[in-house]
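Q: what does this look like with magnesium ion bound?
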Amino acid sequence: MRDAYAKNLNAVHIDNLSVYYGQTPAITGVCLDVHDGEYLGIIGPNGGGKSTLLKAILGLVPISAGTVQIYGNNTNKKTALVGYVPQFVILNRKFPISLVDVVLTGRLKQGLSPFFTFTQKDKEKAFEILEKVGLLSLANRQIAELSGGEFQKMLIARALAVNPRLLLLDEPTASVDAVSREQIYSLLSELNKNKTIILVTHDLLAVSSQVHSLACLNGNLIYHGEPELTENIVNNLYGCPVDLIAHGVPHRVLRDHEEEKTVD
Amino acid sequence: MIKALFEYQFLQNAFLSSILASVVCGIIGVIIVEKKLVMMSGGIAHTSYGGVGLGYLLGFEPIIGAFLFSICAALGIGCIKRKSSTHTDVIIGLFWSLGMALGILFIALMPGYPPDLSSYLFGSILSVTKADLYLMISLTFIVVLVIIVLFNDWKAYLFDEEFASIIGIKTAFLEYLLLVLIAMTVVVLIRVVGIILVLALLTAPAASAGMLTSNLKKRMLYAVIFGNIFCLAGLWISYKINIASGASIVILSIICYFLLYTLRFIFKLRPYSHRQD
Ligand SMILES: Nc1ncnc2c1ncn2[C@@H]1O[C@H](COP(=O)(O)OP(=O)(O)OP(=O)(O)O)[C@@H](O)[C@H]1O
Ligand SMILES: [Mg+2]
């Protein structure tokens, strides 16, 4: 681990990655390096392959070509600890489990652990995280009784309970209110002090103010660099820059946009 | 019946096998209801009929044949499900009918009069032998042990397989293991309620327990208790009026389930109507 760490500082190293679903290409020829400690935002249109990219990093979808490495290891070796907040969860929402128990599953060991019981430290950690995401008062609720946003925050808490070195979040703020969104973003920037974060989002406001670098994905990687979008990139990505401005993207994001390009 | 219980070996066997059946059907039943594996269990159970037929044809214990066939069905369905994109329902359906068809074929190939298979189809708790009982005891022991020992891993796996695999829990292994446990459970239940009625005993106690608690451990415990009540009362009825134990246990379980459902419905309504006032 130390060796790999010394050799390259990349948390994620993606080389010429292609993922196909049957005959349909979801992403093709993506090369992306994410440095240790980076806070990367990924944006792109619906169907651009953002979720697919995260799943490829996690080893959840078979890779058609190319390589993905996490801290120098291939994805099938679960050595580096990775936390993941999925975009859609196809879970049994009626499963008999309480919120804190879900968060505690993040504390389980790799492989299989016979006679495993959670330690006091595990529990303290779980409650500490629940406090951070603002779910402490609901700790003992059954998950069947949670709202969509509370459920989402629970998934974030579970990902944090793993104490991952790399955190992947797929639209974590999609169904939470404005206050919780702020809460989540400030939590993420705090976590970024000792974790690498990859955040997929449609929230361009967040992209401009939160992340350190930006990747634009539409089948292939259109842009990777500073979180400042040029007209050209946005055109390539969405084909409609006006729409973006209408959603209140501040000037810093659209560096080169001209005066007359306001909403018609 | 209590007096007879001390006198007759067959009643003691029946009593013990009821308890064993309730334990496995409570624990595994809760899991398959939550993991939506009810039809999978049905498929595994019915495939085992092929094993019963093979046992009769080749002259070994039919229950051993059922055991082998259900394990193969579990692993086969699990493997095809993992490796191909075919819908699980389809594979289950194929195994289900293939098993039954093989059973019929093997019995037809037997020379002489065909044996009476109704005890395997509908259960015959009063004819459980010592050998059956030993098999049931060992299978129950394995099932309970495997679930208890890996309980927290099971919980994570049952709730969210994807997340469990990301944090490095061996989910493929757990999936196969669960299917094998279901196969073992089916074998334990065959002597008590029979192949055709296995599903009722796997679902009714678990579903009844589900109405009472939303804690996984407690739910399993309650399901075991319900199973015990259903099986022992069913056994008593079966002994008194001399009908197949499977039928009496299943009818009783399902009546109890609906009774509980209705009771809950009535009691659930009260607080709501208060709130509306
Ligand atoms: N399981 C699947 N089977 C087949 N095709 C899929 C599957 N999942 C995704 N795709 C296809 O792959 C492409 C990329 O999908 P992906 O989910 O990665 O997009 P996304 O960028 O996350 O979109 P969104 O913003 O809507 O979440 C889409 O064209 C989609 O149709
Ligand atoms: Mg997506």
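The pocket of adenosine-5'-triphosphate (ligand 1) is lined by residues A 21, 24, 26, 44, 46-52, 87 (CB under 6 Å). Residues 245-276 of chain B form the longest helix (32 residues).
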